[in-house]
Design a protein that fits this description.
This protein is of the alpha+beta class. It has helices spanning 16-24, 29-39, 43-47, 97-111, and strands at residues 5-9, 52-58, 61-69, 82-88, 116-121, 133-139, 145-152. The protein has a single domain (5-152), classed as Gcn5-related N-acetyltransferase (GNAT) (Aminopeptidase). Helix content is 25%, strand content 30%. A seven-stranded mixed β-sheet has the order 1-2-3-4-5-7-6, sandwiched between helices. The radius of gyration is 15 Å and the shape is globular. Mean pLDDT is 92; it is low at 156-161.
């Protein structure tokens, strides 16, 4: 049976504690960091006041999550906004679940007339299939090199890219 997948906003969900527990189940240190930011109330201070956490859910199960944020782990930079903290739980990998979140970010960016979003990662070949293009190497806040990708959107109002 195909799951009932739905993208919801963490802050609007009305079930923040439940979703925090779900994010905390991820086997990724960045997921633990995101949990800490959300629990201690420093999320907006860290990634920007207009940032959000998007959750791909199947009922009460968290399938995948990401942030759509003003800032990410590459600072300081004028590049903005960012898709960050992209994670899909192992049981759901290989089915392009993160792509549903990326599609939602794209819808939101277009509504706000944002022409492009950025992504910082060390993965090669993963985000290209979602329309991202490698842009450059930059250094993250821990001093490590990171690949910067960009996804540009067609501006439908002006017919530009």
């Amino acid at each position: 049976m195909e799951p009932e997948l739905k993208v919801i906003g963490f802050f609007e969900s009305g079930q923040r504690e439940h979703w925090l527990e779900e994010i905390g189940r991820s086997d990724w240190s960045a997921g633990a960091f995101l949990c800490r930011l959300l629990r201690d109330g420093t999320f907006f201070e860290t990634v920007g006041e207009r940032s959000e956490v998007l959750l791909l859910t199947d009922g009460d199960e968290l399938v995948s999550y990401c942030t759509f944020a003003e800032k990410d782990d590459i600072q300081p930079t004028e590049l903005t906004p960012w898709i960050g903290f992209v994670y899909t739980f192992p049981a759901h990998r290989g089915r392009r679940r993160a792509g549903l979140l990326i599609d939602e970010v794209e819808r939101r960016a277009k509504r706000e007339n944002i022409p492009a979003v950025y992504l910082s990662t060390n993965h090669v070949g993963l985000y290209e299939k979602y329309g991202f293009r490698y842009e450059t190497m930059m250094t993250d806040f821990e001093g490590n090199p990171s690949r910067i990708y960009v996804k540009q959107f067609c501006n439908t109002e002006q017919g530009e890219r």
